[in-house]
From TrEMBL:
Domain Secretion system C-terminal sorting: start-end pairs: 295-357
Highest rank taxon of the organism: Bacteria
Protein name, UniProt field: T9SS type A sorting domain-containing protein
Top-level taxonomy: Bacteria, Pseudomonadati, Bacteroidota, Cytophagia, Cytophagales
NCBIfam families: Por_Secre_tail
Length: 368
């Protein structure tokens, strides 16, 4: 626990730090009120500020005011992504850490949640994070049983992000109100693995409403992000796609060492508004070098990729099923890989004949 002033109601008016990955409720508060948050991430640290984030000046218990806190403030509550209608002007949390976790924020009567939502349903409430220039929606769900041990209402409750968040991704966090209309994508799964010096990303959606596209963003520190690719939504131009849909993206030139990835899931613009979007959870891939020979990923569901060493020396490639039947043959294999998406699940043998007369064989499992 870092230094702070213990409030009259048994909270810390300052920063609290935890060790270990067990769930933990941070007993922080300000201006005489306990306003806890929760995250299970190891070494997470945070504090609560019961003032307008657009001003970011809070009172000093010793008298007078602190300067703008934390670094990067103030945080303009009028600057937000298109799917947000309003951002709280009552409070914010500074939460720090490098390990991902689901963030839970609380509220009480001072938060004026009914006014923030325009007296709409609590389902319009969300957690938002300041990305350095604007507030971003972090898809969230209101807790049936709040951090205060009671059901969530307009006057007291808590809300938790659906996906894990690396706290350092955003400067500060607060509560926001979603505009009317559905979020673009229901993301079921987002994974990434490193194979032969490349990062292979896959994600699955269960529902897409007015979805436009996915932007793939990469970072070396989970703070500064760069767009590295774009994948069109399968339901682009269709109002609703309710069936499960799988997507893939390969980063053939990742950074040496740690690579953090996230998806920017973008909706189609309506009524002249900006394109609404939401971010996925963050996944990490460590690149430690390139093996001499490899096929990846294995197991595979859609595209099977081949190492450059094999591609450069290839005379022919043949894929056979468990009965010995040839289901694929070619004299060349490119960086685009081998499409196995229409092949039946099961164990296969992939055999390469090389230009030097040698051969290589690999067992490949197709799984969905």
């Amino acid at each position: 626990m870092t230094s702070g002033v213990l409030g009259n109601d048994g909270f810390v008016d300052g920063y609290v730090k935890k060790a270990g990955s067990a769930p933990f409720v941070f007993p922080v508060g300000d201006n005489g009120t306990l306003r806890p948050f929760s995250i299970a991430s190891d070494q997470a640290m945070g504090a609560y500020f019961g003032v307008d984030p657009g001003i970011a000046v809070t009172s000093n218990p010793a008298g007078g005011n602190y300067g703008v806190l934390p670094q990067g403030g103030p945080f303009n509550t009028g600057s937000m992504v298109g799917d947000l209608q309003m951002v709280s002007t009552k409070e914010y949390w500074d939460i720090n850490g490098t390990s991902p976790g689901r963030i839970t924020l609380s509220w009480n009567e001072n938060s004026a949640i009914a006014a923030l939502l325009g007296n709409r349903a609590l389902s319009k409430l969300t957690v938002v994070g300041w990305d350095g220039s604007k507030w971003v929606n972090l898809t969230s769900a209101v807790d049936a049983t709040s951090l205060f041990g009671q059901g969530s209402t307009y006057t007291s409750g808590s809300i938790t992000t659906v996906q894990e968040v690396v706290p350092n991704t955003y400067n500060v966090y607060t509560l926001g109100a979603l505009r009317d209309g559905a979020l673009p994508v229901t993301l079921v799964r987002f994974t990434a693995v490193g194979r032969e010096g490349a990062s292979y990303l896959e994600w699955l959606t269960s529902e897409e409403i007015n979805s436009s596209h996915f932007e793939i963003e990469r970072s070396g520190d989970a703070k500064s992000w760069q767009g590295i690719g774009k994948v069109a939504a399968r339901g682009e131009g269709i109002a609703t796609a309710a069936s499960p849909t799988q997507y893939q993206f390969t980063d053939n030139h990742p950074l040496d060492g740690s690579n953090f990835y996230r998806l920017k899931m973008v909706d189609r613009a309506t009524d002249g508004n900006d394109e609404p979007f939401a971010y996925s959870r963050i996944v990490k891939v460590d690149i430690d070098g390139r093996p001499d020979w490899a096929v990846y990923p294995n197991p595979v569901s859609s595209k099977l990729f081949i190492s450059q060493n094999i591609i450069r020396s290839l005379a022919s490639a043949r894929l056979m099923d468990a009965a010995g039947r040839t289901v694929y043959t070619s004299d060349t294999v490119t960086d685009e890989g081998i499409d196995v998406s229409r092949m039946s699940p099961g164990l296969y043998l992939l055999k390469f004949s090389l230009t030097d007369g040698l051969s290589k064989s690999y067992k490949v499992l197709i799984s969905r």
